Amino acid sequence: MREDELYREIILEHASHPHHHGTVAAPTHSTEGRNPVCGDEIALSWSEVAGRVQEIAFDGTGCSISQASASILCDSIIGLSIPEALAQARAFRAMLVEGSDIGDDMSDMAALKGVQAYPARVKCALLAWNLLAESLEKEEHSHD
Amino acid sequence: MTAPASATTPFDVTEIRKDFPILNDASRTRPLSYLDSAATSQKPAVVLKAMQDYYIHANANVHRGVHELGDAATSRFEHARHRVARFLNADPRGLIFVRNTTEALNLVATGIARQGGLMSSDRVVLSVLEHHSNIVPWQLERSTHGFAIEAIPLLPDGSLDMAAARKLLAPPTKILSITYQSNVLGIVTPLRELIDMAHEAGILVAVDGAQRVPHARVDLKELNCDFFAMSGHKLYGPMGSGVLWGKPELLSSMSPFLGGGSMIDTVTFERTTWAELPQKFEAGTPDVAAAVGLAAACDYIDSLSYEAMENYESSLMQHLVQMLDSLPFIEVYGPEDRTQIVGAVSFNVQGVHAHDVGTICDRHGVAIRVGHHCCQPLMRHLGVPATARASVAVYVTHDDIDALQEALEDVAAIFARVIAPYSPATPEHRHA
Predict the structure, then answer these.
(1) Active-site choice (B225, B298, B361, B374)
(2) Do the domain assignments include residue A4?
(3) For residues B169 and B318, what is the distance between their CA atoms, to the nearest angstrom?
(4) Which of A86, B14, B39, B121 is such that its CA lies 20 to 30 A from the CA of B374?
(5) Residues B183-224: pLDDT tens digits?
(6) What ipTM was estimated for this complex?
(7) B298 is an active site residue
(8) Between residues 1 and 40 of chain A, which touch chain B (CB distance below 8 Å)?
(9) Does residue A51 sit within a domain?
(10) A36: three-class secondary structure by DSSP
(11) What gap in Å lies between CA B123 and CA B130, rounded to an integer?
(12) Residues of the domain holding A71
């Protein structure tokens, strides 16, 4: 059977067995948000050590896309420097909003590209990433 | 208008579907099973034609000027008012055209509170079934006038706790504002009983009738509520058409809702006096075409007859709920006595978020509503963040319900392997 363009195995796997679920022990940053229209909720927390994301975790409720996307975010961001993490969040957003390619087609992030064909669901996939980007951008400005 | 013969002949859905252009749209490339009429109904050609006729033959501003088209527009607008009033068996002087039920309920809350009808020692009673449009307008007024708001609680199956209602319908309650039919559960509230209880205690009753009028004849003289809010767009009428009906003596003593043109008697910078009903509540240029379209929708429904509609829709609902109950992975919300579920039914696929259900249904060409349905307090009562909702209308077929079943079986197939152990019945799993 041809793989479902939206509900790919990798997405369903992240949704049912999310990685980095919960909260980090000693967060330096935390943020939370929701999609008022559909009620998806995500809380992100991470610890920044020497300019890198050392630990990151998410908690929340919502559809498979919002929860899988948050799980994939944590996998993709852990260990990155702050500018790298922000670049990653922006690349993910560009993939869903503008349809641009993300570097590695085989990555879990790229598995969410199918969401682009479902305009009503793009906001589900972006929820966690927007929260991260807003928080990092705020921090960037505060260092200006 | 459809031949009145259909009132006595069996309900012919194939013929009825021909009345709705969107169901016969040749430019569509995908099938369409529209099970979202509780959000808004589709519109028959007679409604579209009435609106276009108005624009082609009679468009001008109403209640102003002395020219021929102005008279024609005013006459069509006032004819529409009388037509809709007759449809509801209501006094036309109390029939105010608004955009939708939300605006109608805002008008009631604002008009009463601003005139001094709600003080800090008073109470407004709602119910846990309410749509946000019957909660938020009262909260907005509470922030200025400081009265209390209480909600009639529900029994586990979603029906009103009438013992609790009886206690709340007593001093210091001034207003009961309540739905006639739940947009989520399809439950019809025992309005006659509630209205009698309220009136015995001197309490005014406002009714959110948005979900009731599309499914059953409403007779406002018999119901004897004080205010009745409804949307035309759920009743086969155009977007932007809605009605607030109120007892004229109450509306006369209330403050206007919006200020502006049309609603005044005389204006000076010191003081302004109000126009007579119903103009007092119709500030600015009204949507005449929407009113004309709504009147045409009333003609259309009468041509089908409510009795025939109700019989047909109840056969659809029986099929729909039985189908949902027959699928082991579906949870249906609402009374055990399934005949009490009217017009719309809410459900979830166990372990799968309603948005995923909605997306997969859409891929099958089945349009359902998913989310909190503007009823977050009711979602909390049900203990779920969201539900899927299927609703019926005169043009829905039994094949549409079969299409929904196929789509739901696909949801279960896609999510079966990975989601089954992740059921909402064991939320702690998520946090393990």
Answers:
(1) B374
(2) no
(3) 34
(4) B121
(5) 999 999 999 999 999 999 999 999 999 999 999 999 999 999
(6) 0.89
(7) no
(8) 4, 6-7, 12-13, 15-18, 21-22, 37-40
(9) yes
(10) coil
(11) 17
(12) 9-138
